[in-house]
Amino acid sequence: MISERFKELRKHNLTGFVPYLVANYPNKDIFDEALAALSNMGADLIEIGIPFTDPIAEGKTIESAHHASLKNGFNLTNFLNQIKNFKNRFDTHIVAMGYANSFLNPSIEEVSQKSREAGFDGFLIVDMPYEETDTFKLIKGRDLEFIQLVAPTSTQENIERGLSNNPSLIYYITQRGVTGANNLDLTEVQNNLKDLQKITNVPIITGFGIKSSEHIKAFKDYTDGIVIGSALIECLANSNPIKSMKDFLAPILEELKNE
Amino acid sequence: MNKGYYGKFGGIFIPETLSFALRELDTLYQDIKNDTTFNNELQDIYIHYVGRPSPLYFAEKYTENIGGPKIWFKREDLNHTGAHKINNTVGQALLAKKLGKKRIIAETGAGQHGVATATICAKLGLECVIYMGETDIQRQELNVFKINTLGAKVVPVSSGTATLKDALNESIRDWVTNVENTHYIIGSVTGPHPYPEIVRDFNSISGKELKDQSIERFEKLPDMVIACVGGGSNAMGVFAPFVDDLNVELVGIEAGGVSDSDIGSASINDGSIGVLHGAKTMILQNNSGEILETSSISAGLDYPGVGPEHAYLADIDRAKYKKVFDSQALDAFYKVSRLEGIIPALETAHAIAYLEELSDINKDKNVVVNMSGRGDKDLYSVMSL
Ligand SMILES: Cc1ncc(COP(=O)(O)O)c(C=O)c1O
User: Cα(B265)–Cα(B313) distance, rounded to whole angstroms?
Assistant: First the structure.
């Protein structure tokens, strides 16, 4: 269970490593290789972006990756077979992160069922509001966990409404903006994370625009996990993607493990 | 039932960052919509700035030509800026002022909504940024120049299909980033709750006027009201006051593109249920839920979704939705220009084209077409066909 993994990390005062990839970006082979490499590097949870034509919460980097993957012929059914193979070799937790329309087609029941069978541990649906309680029940009914987004603009009332759906994890969005944005206010994030922990015991991962050891240093004492997205996707666009990704992550992982 | 649903359509499918802004807007709107001061302010602008009420015109030669029912045009094309879009933008700009937001963003396809937004922002002294797809910038050059002339900024959008849907994506991204000082004026009855309701209500001024005018002119309600449907704001505005009058037939016209083998942009006729831009509604998508690249001769109808309330009215059979192709719209564009001396927008020409189907209807019936806009903006692209 994702929730147990993060409770365990919290118990030992550790901060989890949560990389984000876009399914089959930059292509199927490199994606598979990246997924395996990240597991070997000790990822606690891997978020896999399900490509969508209109990913409204993404900045340019991730949006382009979504479109590139679709252009390469991404297909969820084939992709789930790929995930099955991955899960046969690794027990790393993985969640499918994406947009409502990808999860509702043909139905949330069917997509949940098939994703669970393939080995997904949970869903993070970016544009699924807390009000859609029936959808969250259906997801949980298929033995999947889900992650709830909380933003700097979220009111306490709304956060509590979301918590009543029993998420396994909270994903705290560090800034007003899209993925990869450059407006991090380190102190504001720290304060908001502190406030969030007063409201709930649900473990919290933190992401959007995190790309350096300085960011990790600033946040790791206030969160149970750090999400690295756009910065990783940028590495994968390079000519030697896996090496580029590993080189980029080395100081970040070191900082994460640093007591 | 959850907030903002029309039957199984609607909802608030947005990233959490925007949740508070939509709640704030909803609360303000529910408070203010029956407020006398607000409504007086709005009426004053409608009368003295927009030029309302818009006339109900009897199209005598068109009636003769079709040889069926009496044909009337509700002249939204005579509004300031040349379309119905201004009914919504003035209302929302006043809401933005009440919210204390000094920066306005909007998406535009045909450019009419961009112009209508830039116009009221100039008048009220609000900063204004308009997102527009690069394809649309090319086919609606004149409106781009108008928007710039009005002191607003046009931001070209090159991602995806570089049309209206991508302009909407970019607007939502801007709004997520600047949500605390920015109000997003959505241009149609689309998007998350409360937008479909707000945009419908502000546009329903045309339907309310039409109700009074029909009693005045032909002493009963119309037998049929026809309007083109892109997102569906002009149609929803003119339909809304008649939804409970079951004897009034409501007909929405979607754009079919070149022919039936084309994807077109007829979301109700050819689409299936899904989530796009914050609402669960009828959308054009493939089996995996990817949004299709739509096409239409008219930029304002070239959108793969439709307002959730239209999806609902279609679902319960209260309104019917028909498809008109590019060439039929173009024929109507010329025909109404020559018969009535009114050059319509290409969007509106789709609604007019449907009149060809009505020659069998009895002569004492009254059919009203909502003339959603004038054709000036389309002359360049029609010229180059
Ligand atoms: C003249 C005119 N009519 C209709 C439309 C379509 O919009 P809606 O369906 O929201 O009325 C547009 C959009 O730009 C327009 O400019």
Answer: 18
